[in-house]
Amino acid sequence: MTPTPPSERTRVRRYNWLARYDRDTIVAILDAIPHCHIGYVADGQPLVTPTLHWREGDQLYWHGSAASRMIRAIEGAEVCLTVSAIDGLVMARSAFNFNVNHRSVMVFGRPSKVTDPAAKEAHLRTMVNRLIPGQWERLRPMKPNELEATTVMSMPFDEASAKVRVGPPEDDETDYAFPVWAGVIPIRTEVLAPEPDPRNLPGVEMPAEALAFRP
Amino acid sequence: MTPTPPSERTRVRRYNWLARYDRDTIVAILDAIPHCHIGYVADGQPLVTPTLHWREGDQLYWHGSAASRMIRAIEGAEVCLTVSAIDGLVMARSAFNFNVNHRSVMVFGRPSKVTDPAAKEAHLRTMVNRLIPGQWERLRPMKPNELEATTVMSMPFDEASAKVRVGPPEDDETDYAFPVWAGVIPIRTEVLAPEPDPRNLPGVEMPAEALAFRP
């Protein structure tokens, strides 16, 4: 994909050699890390709300209660949606070069509500089935009042930047002669065995897809 | 500890039965999850920057380049520092009751710079030694220009709220008769074996503390 040139606000300043603006990198991070932090301003006050997002094509989606402070504040307003994960502790030879391996994406935009009920339900179905394929069809069907109480927000990610750091420490050249151990301690997300609800009906079977779940 | 009564902006609205305002809960989350997202406003635009924080007593600290956009924008300004981790996917019997087990803390405040160079160095030492005990003393000593290029920010967390969800799904009472598997898929952070830098000097030994590293 052709890299999108950064805008004034997405241009990465710090560690700018780690910056990526190509859609493939941005999509890979947005899809791999479903946990985002949405920054917005309410009454002049910055707020950061963690939530789960998902992507469909060129749009990001997330949902919330129709009555939530975040949902009410962000419609049509500027938000900054940041996704980040730490992949390792980079133990350099100096404190100054200590670092973390990480992936992050920062998206700027103005979210809008999905107003059509059928479209909203289709997006929620996509969210559930991305987590556990086929699960939407196994669940107790959604009720109209539940659909009404749920807001789905959507935002393009055409104004976005990514930062990726991988690999060993990058020390000052003279520091490689300093006798201290250096390296990386990798960190990753681990998924454990599913824990059945004690109130499961006798005979209900865990869907095989639950065993394959990766966030 | 006595719970601090929530302020108008820390009072949790959504899922408010998950809210906690006691210092022990807040401290436990701030200490267990070193990865935070700092929300601030620059030229009317919300920005969310991921970084690492650490706690000393009643103050939170983080550091950055003295020249960074975030560091320049936040001194004395309102910020919202949010820490959050997802601990599991809660597979309920309806899409509406799907959830995530999670821990989060939201802190409001106005950060200030640590200006005294000796204090700044002491805080950086604490940061490094919290990650890997004793590592500061093993590293190539910090240079005055490095200390100058590093800004340490500090902020109290006396205006904070936490949210914690644990345990099995909470379904509508009538849904417990619906024949679908329900349960929790736990998620956690895994630390892998340290990867030595290929440029390590022969004979340098990995500190035992690196093996005990937990974020």
TrEMBL record, chains A, B:
Pfam family, one: Pyridox_ox_2
InterPro entries in UniProt: Pyridox_Oxase-rel, Split_barrel_FMN-bd
Domain of life, per lineage: Bacteria
Name recorded for this polypeptide: Pyridoxamine 5'-phosphate oxidase family protein
Organism: Blastochloris sulfoviridis
